[in-house]
Amino acid sequence: MYIKTNRDSIRRQAGRLETVCLAAAVAVLPLTALYWAAFNFLPADMTRQAASLAAGPELPGWVRLLCFVAAMVPGAALMVALLRLRRLFGLYREGSLFSLANVLAFRGVARSLLAWAVCSVLATPLHSLAVTAANPPGRHMVSLGVGGTELALVFLASLALVMARVMDEARRLDEEAALTV
Fold first, then answer.
1. How many structural domains is the chain composed of?
2. pLDDT tens digit sequence for 84-117
3. Which SS3 state, helix, strand or coil, does residue 181 take?
4. What's the first-to-final CA gap in the chain, in angstroms?
5. Over the stretch 114-129, which tens digit does the pLDDT of each residue have?
6. Spatial contact of 85 and 108, defined as CB atoms under 8 Å apart
7. How far apart are CA 54 and CA 60, in angstroms?
8. pTM for this model (two decimals)
């Protein structure tokens, strides 16, 4: 009879999350490109916020390309965060729970979350510049803003950085205890 342990559950769930993180990271680029390519054909509810600064509800192709580039600034940071999470879940799937590689992977996740927050803040003025690029002279806009999402990302990144330090300290104490006779 097979007895399922907590480590077995961790390995199984980590394997699933590793796959989900990879699929999500791979999907960011084509989904973003598809959104901006089909922007003029989407229902108004899906485009109202994005096009609120533009002179008209439809955007020329070169403006949509600029908007895609602006959207990929935080999109690229999101992809990096997802790939680093994938690495961490890969270590858990392999049975590595408290190694130096885990600490480094967890720290990488935290740093990528922080980079995602910074890129999200940068995306707001880039998006406003891109979406108003075809507006007549005098109607170009630059908007700035920090919202709850960016603040939540900074909080989560800070939390993850502290947890990475705690994990590193636990790993170091465990290694010292293993050497004590």
1. 1
2. 999 999 999 999 888 899 999 999 999 999 999 9
3. coil
4. 37
5. 999 999 999 989 988 8
6. no
7. 11
8. 0.85
